[in-house]
Amino acid sequence: MSKVLLVNSPSPDRYIYIRDVNRSGRRSREGTIWPQTSLAYIAAMVKNSGHSVDIIDCIADNINWAGCRKILEETKPDYIITNPISSIVTNDLYVTYLGKTIGSITIAVGPHVTALPKESLNEYPSLDFVVMGEAEITVCELINCLEKKGNLESVDGIAFRNGKEHVLTKKRKLISNLDDLPLPLHELLPIKKHRLPYIGKNYTFVLSSRGCPYLCTFCRQPIMWERLVRTRSAKSIFQELQYITKIGINNFMFHSDTFTIDRDVVIDLCKMVVDSKMKLRWCCNSRVDTMDEEMLCWMKRAGCWLINYGIETASDEILKNVKKGGTATVVKAYDIVKLTKKTGIKVWGYFIIGLPGETKETIEETINMAKGLPFDIVNFAVGTPYPGTEFYKEAKEKGWLESKSWEDFDQNYSAIVSYPGLSSTDIIKGIRNCYLKWYLRPIGILSFLKGISNFYFAKKMFNIALDHIQIVPKKQ
């Protein structure tokens, strides 16, 4: 039986970073401790394959690189698995260097290495294997193949070195039925350390589906899930809810690309929760064109208190440019946000400033929209062309990129595209203006204060205010 260690790498500085298997990693303004549910899924599969497994979350447990080295030297895992993010990829993959000093085999998963497998192997000699795409089955097959000294080329979905050559094996097919996956090992996560303003402390993620059928050019989900939507059954999701409540968690987020993508599953699940009389507090991500009044009412009854809508912009032309698709129009956003509030559910509005087609005028339209709708909280992110996205390819081809350093690809802290008529500096100024105009109103100040439940969050919320005016454009 081999020892497998999954590592959420330490921070490179005093800041907290978010890493996820299907999201664009970033530095957290608000000090969010992001549940590593994706690692918990891999851990469950590894355990079922007969190996010893553990998770070290250096971010949540505030472990620096010296502490991480000590843990590795004490535990001496046979395999180390980690998920590097673009903005701090060199820092994140330092764990593979430490792993090689103790004889571990090192494996990286996630969207960055999936999009750049050869480049990752080239740049980081201590990285032995890249798992491309969905990781659970691939990781287990890779470990079992290595244990048996089998033919690595028989393992679909990996990249590795063969002498001076890089081998990319056949693409792995996505898991057709997510119910076949074991429940993620939430108990291996430091759940009591998880925290996020408004959401609170002691929360976790529940993944109800993978994939999204829409074509948004800025989204990284196609890198991992290839736009193929697979939804767990209501019964499977409900079993996980029973499990997390038994370990003391009733505060969670449905961390899916679009929780409401399958209306029947959502309503069936909500009915199960209502019938069981479980007392839950949960939120989710959604699109405005996948929501209706009946579903909202059932969600409210089942414990939903907050919905995060990806609004992006007040310009239908920009929505068209980024292939938002469906019927997620500006008019639809107005209608659904108001309907959600009418149902008694709070609304978090996500906006992106700096997508193709953005102008100073459209930025002003977006802030007017944000101010004109009854949002409880809003977020304005920088339009960032992460590697592997259609947005990145477009930005590279049209000469919009101002930086080639992955460390500058952070939607919270840097602008790296400039358009004719709208520079990266203009984008940053626009975001500052959006935050100032939204939050420096009575409703904005009240929203800000509601995110403060203790001294920790008070300090973090103050830092948010400072960080909102400190993001800067990046020059090559």
Measured as a percent range, the helix fraction is 25-40%
Q: Which sequence of strands runs across the widest sheet?
A: 4-1-5-6-7-8-9
Query: Would you count the extended β strands for me?
Result: 21
- Coarse morphology: globular
Indicate the radius of gyration in whole angstroms. 22 Å
How would you describe the oligomerization state of the chains in this entry? single chain
Structural class: alpha/beta
Unreliable segments of 5+ consecutive residues? none
Task: Walk me through what this model shows.
The protein is built from 18 helices and 21 strands. With 476 residues, the chain is α/β, with parallel strands linked by helices. Strands 4-1-5-6-7-8-9 form a seven-stranded mixed sheet, with helices on both faces. It has a six-stranded parallel sheet with strand order 12-15-16-17-18-19. A two-stranded antiparallel sheet has the order 2-3. Helix 14 (360-372) links the parallel strand 18 and strand 19. Helix 1 (37-48) packs across helix 7. The longest helix has 16 residues, at 424-439. It is globular, with a radius of gyration of 22 Å. 49% of the residues are buried.
SSE topology sketch:
Layout: E1 3-8, E2 17-18, E3 26-27, H1 37-48, E4 52-57, H2 65-75, E5 79-82, H3 89-92, H4 94-101, E6 105-108, H5 111-115, H6 117-123, E7 129-131, H7 136-147, E8 158-162, E9 165-168, E10 195-196, E11 200-201, E12 204-206, E13 209-210, H8 221-225, E14 230-231, H9 234-246, E15 251-254, H10 263-276, E16 281-286, H11 293-301, E17 304-312, H12 316-321, H13 330-343, E18 346-353, H14 360-372, E19 377-382, H15 390-397, E20 414-415, H16 424-439, H17 442-450, H18 455-467, E21 472-473
Helix pairs in contact: 1-7, 9-10, 10-11, 14-16
